[in-house]
Each structure stands twice: as C-alpha cells, then as structure tokens.
Design goal:
69% helix, Arc Repressor Mutant, subunit A, single chain, 3 strands, 7 helices, three-stranded antiparallel beta sheet, disordered C terminus, mainly alpha
Length: 153
C-alpha cells in the first residue's frame, strides 16, 4: 500500500475512533456545565499555563472581547482566576484554579479508564503492535512539538 494510502487509512481510523469514543460519552463530559469555547480555554490553560487574556484569545481563536467574556464565566464557576503579572503590573494573567485543574484531571482519568478497558480486550500481539505504533506517534509529536518540525512531514 502506498504511503499516502496508509496515512489516509490511519486518519480514517482515527476519525472513526473519535466518533465511537464520543458516542461512549465518558461521565465527566455529561456533567460539564460549560460550553465548548470554555472547555477549550480550560484545556489551553492546562497545557500552556497562565497567560494574559490576549494570548489566551489567540490560542483559542477568539477575539479579546470574547475571551474576556469566557474568562468572566469561568471565573464565576471558580475554574479560572485572574492574577497580577509578577513583573508587569499592567498585565493580568488568567490561570486555572484547583477546581479547573480537577476538572481536567477528571476528564483525563475517565479517558484513561475507558482506554484501559478497551486495551484489555486486545490480544498480546495487538497490544505489542499498538504500543509500537503509539511509541512512534509520540516520538513524532515530540519532534514536531519540541523540535519545531513541519506538520506535513
């Protein structure tokens, strides 16, 4: 099978896996009382740490005014807080609260529980193959993310 056909087949399987996972709807998603843009904001803050609202807006693809409204609503739910910048008093940083960190951890833990249950039904050979494939994918992600590689490599 040509390389591009393998890539297309893997991408199609990945999409199908995401659809099937979404249909399973892990319990933390069901009890979330936040919008998708709010969840994106929480996830960006978890991944990148505290940042000014303007940077948060760029990272989530919304205007600064929209980001401010999202932060206001998340702050009202005690998922984020505003903090003074340590060196520039003109700048206010947005950070996750312990409640926001707990929310992300609950989502991640539910995903790990679901994945673990699915892995238990695979054969030893399938597990070894999957481990090898994921190790290669993680290495490519490290190189792309940390090494500044291209996404179309």
């Amino acid at each position: 099978m040509p390389r591009h056909a393998d890539i297309d087949a893997i991408a199609a399987l990945f999409r199908e896996a995401l659809q099937l996972q979404a249909a399973a709807a892990p319990e933390p998603y069901l009890k979330l009382d936040i919008t998708l843009p709010q969840l994106k904001t929480v996830m960006v803050l978890f991944a990148k740490g505290s940042m000014p609202t303007s940077s948060l807006a760029r990272s989530t693809g919304v205007s600064a005014a929209v980001a401010t409204g999202i932060v206001d609503r998340l702050e009202a739910q005690a998922l984020v807080c505003r903090q003074a910048h340590p060196t520039d008093r003109r700048v206010t940083l947005v950070a996750l609260t312990p409640g926001g960190e707990q929310l992300v951890e609950e989502i991640r833990a539910a995903g790990v529980r679901r994945l673990t249950a699915l892995l238990k039904v695979l054969s030893d050979e399938q597990l070894r193959d999957l481990r090898s494939g994921y190790a290669a994918l993680v290495e490519a992600l490290r190189e792309h993310t940390l090494g500044g590689g291209r996404g179309d490599a």
